[in-house]
Amino acid sequence: MRILVTNDDGIMAPGLMALRKALAEIGDVTVVAPTTPQSAVGHAITLTEPIRVHRIDLGGGVWGYGVAGSPADSVKLALLELLPERPDIVASGINLGTNLGVNVLYSGTVAAAAEGAFFGLPSVAVSIEDSDVVDFDGAARIARRLIQQMMTGGPDRSGVQRGEPALLNINIPDLTKAPPRGVKVMPQSMKGFSERWERRTDPRGRTYYWITGDHDREDQGIHSDIAAFFEGYVTVTPLRFDLTDHDRVDDVRGWNLTL
Ligand code: MN
């Protein structure tokens, strides 16, 4: 199995290192990832600048490609230029910080995986809860087991033969507090962060802003990724990038719009 590993925290991030190491035990891994941290850039691509690529020493005799661009740039370049052969799967992460609910729309981690799915490849985004001490290796072992079950566990689970590659968003709770209660496949929540701006003053007396906030909790009785995550489960959410509001198409047609 050929595996492309990427992320949005940058090629030197410990989460990527752990994922690369864990997946090297089940396949041939190539790392192509942004040179610098690119969290929350979403599905951005670089149009107005050239993109430089550097071979980066990842330690232990392993080299990767550092891309001076976004996560989506990295996957596009990997698949169209850098990799000698098409991989079987794209794995993005492990991101430091969850990508739950509507936060998937801001996530560079998820966008990199979605880019893989655009190219017809099964893809996973893996994120872990931020905490003082993060067990990336434990999270990488969980990711590897889930990936194995998708890729080898049953007929066309990856969706490749049907031409509908699976795009899975995986979130792992803090493993240093307690082991996860299990894994649950859940729909994406419509919630995200309760945001607020911190207004501060710089040393020259000028105002600047910094966004912060707390993760929303799910409403009572709603079954979602956020609900299961905060109950202590690893969550798996199959995503699609058809953003059409299918339920509303007939409704809007019924408006008989005219020009
Ligand atoms: Mn990130």
Radius of gyration from the alpha-carbon trace, in angstroms: 19 Å
Ligand list: manganese (II) ion
Q: In which order are the strands of the major sheet placed?
A: 3-4-2-1-5-6-7-11-8
Which structural class fits the helix and strand makeup? alpha/beta
Q: Share of helix among residues?
A: 10-25%
Q: Briefly, what CATH class?
A: Alpha Beta
Give the uncertain stretches in residue-range form. Answer: none
- Please tally the β strands and state the result: 11
Please state the average pLDDT score. 97
Termini separation: 53 Å
Task: Tell the overall outline.
Answer: globular
Number of helices: 6
CATH 2nd-level architecture: 3-Layer(aba) Sandwich
Keywords:
259 residues, alpha/beta, Stationary-phase Survival Protein Sure Homolog, Chain: A, 6 helices, 27% strand, globular, binds manganese (II) ion
Task: Write a concise synopsis of the structure shown.
By secondary structure, the chain is of the alpha/beta class.
